[in-house]
């Protein structure tokens, strides 16, 4: 079952540990937790995974279980943590990770639920972030009848472009080495962040260390370029160039976007991508073991224009979940809530906006989309959680209200805690609306903000 991860659960349950072997090179472990019939809410929830990690996410299982759900999670067909070598020479395992494992788990878990309770679950929900968000979109696209509602947070749905884009950002910042003119030492990240805040923080009517609408922040890093020698509060010309490329993201030689860059306001979180001495490991592992099939592939040979095309050709149709046609999911009665943190340091939030807008175009406009799918952007939130902005909100509850009571989410209230106490709340607005301060009352109270057009 992979590495040992323990979680103490005191409520009674029937814990079913199972596996599925759809091919001779497949072994998909999954678990189903079944509460007593007296406390079961009559519904089923499945939860997602992170990165390429091969283990069941017990903490997420427990969240749904505590709400009375019969819950399930899988290891996606392998048992490795932060080591993508499991994919080398195993195309069936790549398919398992990409889409087959979740579908197999959903089908089998529902059968287990029905056998245990003597009746089928009346509704099935998916809840996941990052890879879990991608898994939810994969289900809505490939298997639209598996779930009645999907929560897809910060979805890693454009895997080929995401990993090439991540490799690019890391390598651009590192390519000159720790003494190179373009290298960004950790000490310079607060300098960039401070300047970005000075330019854009107050545009929502509140100066609080959060940039509410980053795409409309026109901060230029050249404004803090050193006049002479390098100093602690300015950037060299090479560092300015690096920051501009991080904001811009990876592009083809003709200027077309490969993957969006990071947003203004996310600078304090760039360290994992830019401090080296090598690029972020997920991108390198993906390229070595899934794309090129070469454990010795060297990130120094990266050519974005060439390599992203190779990745798309070799594995794009397997690993990506970018199909905007959700008509079958909608016809099934499915509801989809997407969310993404504006300060995400792992997956650029522009990717989720791009996907949502592609759905709007495919479905025939906003009206035909917002009746079953909505996107919420979280100002200041990092990858799935944390960051400087509010990061706690009941998205599953919003999905329940929408699917079960036909009440679409006009906003979600997010909170931020400090020392186990709520220190501020803010509304998360359906895209493209943004929260604006009304001008009166506490700026830490969501009631004093309104969702408005940008």
Describe what you observe in this structure:
With 454 residues, this protein is an alpha/beta fold. The protein folds into two domains: 14-160 and 319-452, Alpha/Beta hydrolase fold, catalytic domain (Rossmann fold, 3-Layer(aba) Sandwich), CATH 3.40.50; 161-314, no CATH class. It has 13 helices and twelve strands. An eight-stranded mixed beta sheet has the order 1-2-4-3-5-6-7-8, sandwiched between helices. A two-stranded antiparallel ribbon has the order 9-10. A hairpin with a 7-residue loop joins strand 1 (14-20) and strand 2 (28-34). 49% of the residues are buried.
Primary descriptors:
single chain; 454 residues; alpha/beta; Rossmann fold; 2 domains; eight-stranded mixed beta sheet; two-stranded antiparallel ribbon; 34% helix; globular
Strand content: 15-25%
Q: In CATH's first tier, which class of the largest domain applies?
A: Alpha Beta
Q: Which regions are unreliable across 5 or more consecutive residues at pLDDT < 50?
A: none
Strand order of the largest sheet: 1-2-4-3-5-6-7-8
Any guess at the CATH architecture of the largest domain? 3-Layer(aba) Sandwich
Task: State the helix count.
Answer: 13
Average the pLDDT over all residues and give the rounded result. 94
């Amino acid at each position: 079952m992979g590495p040992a991860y323990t979680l103490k659960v005191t409520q009674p349950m029937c814990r079913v540990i199972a596996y599925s072997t759809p091919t001779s090179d497949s072994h998909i472990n999954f678990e189903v937790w079944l509460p007593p019939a007296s406390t079961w809410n009559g519904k089923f929830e499945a939860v997602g995974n992170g990165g390429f990690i091969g283990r069941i996410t017990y903490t997420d299982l427990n969240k749904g279980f505590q709400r009375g759900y019969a819950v399930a999670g899988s290891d996606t067909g392998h048992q490795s943590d932060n080591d993508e070598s499991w994919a080398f020479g195993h195309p069936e395992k790549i398919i398992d990770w990409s889409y087959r494992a979740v579908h197999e788990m959903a089908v089998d878990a529902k059968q287990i639920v029905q056998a245990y309770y003597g009746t089928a679950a009346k509704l099935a929900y998916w809840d996941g972030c990052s890879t879990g968000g991608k898994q939810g979109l994969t289900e809505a696209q490939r298997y639209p009848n598996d779930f009645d509602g999907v929560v897809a947070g910060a979805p890693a749905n454009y895997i080929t472009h995401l990993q090439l884009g991540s490799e690019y950002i890391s390598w651009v910042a590192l390519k000159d080495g720790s003494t190179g003119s373009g290298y960004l030492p950790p000490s310079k990240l607060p300098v960039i962040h401070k300047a970005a805040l000075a330019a854009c923080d107050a545009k929502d009517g509140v100066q609080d260390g959060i940039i509410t609408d980053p795409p409309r922040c026109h901060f230029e890093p050249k404004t803090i370029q050193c006049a002479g020698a390098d100093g602690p509060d300015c950037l060299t010309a090479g560092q300015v160039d690096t920051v501009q490329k991080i904001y811009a993201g990876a592009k083809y030689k003709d200027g077309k976007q490969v993957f969006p860059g990071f947003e203004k306001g996310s600078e304090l979180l760039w360290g994992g991508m830019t401090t080296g001495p090598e690029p972020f490991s997920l991108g390198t592992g993906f390229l070595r073991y899934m794309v090129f099939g070469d454990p010795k592939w060297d990130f120094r040979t990266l050519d974005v224009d060439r390599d992203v095309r190779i990745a798309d050709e070799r594995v794009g149709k397997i690993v990506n979940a970018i199909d905007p046609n959700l008509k079958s999911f909608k016809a099934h009665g499915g509801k989809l809530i997407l969310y993404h943190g504006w300060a995400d340091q792992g997956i650029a939030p522009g990717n989720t906006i791009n996907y949502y807008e592609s759905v709007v175009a495919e479905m025939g406009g906003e009206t035909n989309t917002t009746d079953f799918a909505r996107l919420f952007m979280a100002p200041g939130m990092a990858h799935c959680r944390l960051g400087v902005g509010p990061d706690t909100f009941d998205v599953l509850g919003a999905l329940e209200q929408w699917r079960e009571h036909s009440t679409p989410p006009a906003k979600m209230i997010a909170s931020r805690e400090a020392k186990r106490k709520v220190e501020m709340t803010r509304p998360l607005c359906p895209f493209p609306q943004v929260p604006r301060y009304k001008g009166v009352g506490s700026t830490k109270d969501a009631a004093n903000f309104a969702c408005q057009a940008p």
